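S1.2 Input.
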Amino acid sequence: MQAMTTSLPFQALRAAFGDGLQESVPLARYTSARIGGPAAALLTVHLADELAATIQRLWETDAPYFILGGGSNVLVSDAGVQAVVVLNRAKSVRFDESGDTPTVWAESGASFGGIARQAGQKGLSGLEWAAGIPGTLGGAVVGNAGAHGGEVADNLVLAEILHHREGRQPWTAEQLAFGYRSSALKRDPERAVVLSATLKLAPGMPEAIEEKMDSFLAYRRQTQPPGASMGSMFKNPPGDYAGRLIEAAGLKGHQVGAAQISELHANFFVNLGGASASDVYALIDTARRAVNEQFGVQLELEIELVGDWQQFE
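S1.3 Output.
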């Protein structure tokens, strides 16, 4: 949970970023759930080098920050974020098909699902599982995104990291210490920032790759709700599924305000239109309590709570 209640050094920030610094910016438009209060300040970057320079300056001013990519897997508080939100729009993608093992390099703000689809169009296999994943490559690396039996840890060659003490350096999957929907960066978010990553691929037949992607995408459409949501709300507990437990607790379709536990998949909470973060959090609390009381399972959030949530602690 990112509390971020520290006052920002606005004078130093204005001196460092000038007109690039926006203040009191509503964040709902930048999140996949269309929910969230204002950022005290917002900066937009368009290149990995610009992201690195921006983060360095934020470290120098000792300003709290939060990097926002595609806006999935986050729930921003209604009270907003008392930090500098860095909107990551660094999206360059390059494929290298020259060696025996083709790779793709991309900046951390690039769409992860888009990278997978581009690879498929080039007849490059290995990322079919990621074709429907929302969000950015940087978020996928931090959270070790996965689906259909694949995950980032299986594909990562190197991630270029900006570390607050050691500067820019390449990290391997071993250094990132991937776990289930987790990494060293997610466990210690102030430690470093993902600037770009290189993923390994394999030569394949375009028709077979496209067919596999289409089947995964069709399954996703059949089992996951459309519209405004954060993605999977809870991590699957060992040997079970969060959605099954929530459904078994009788909560499928349960609604608070304009937020609803999806009638299609109970591990997705959807914004029916005008939902607040407080509405969603009430559903989170209800699901956790019911599943724990009925099955003795403590559900762990997969999404990240961002902003001021002190009233719920």
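S1.4 Remarks. The longest helix spans residues 277-295.
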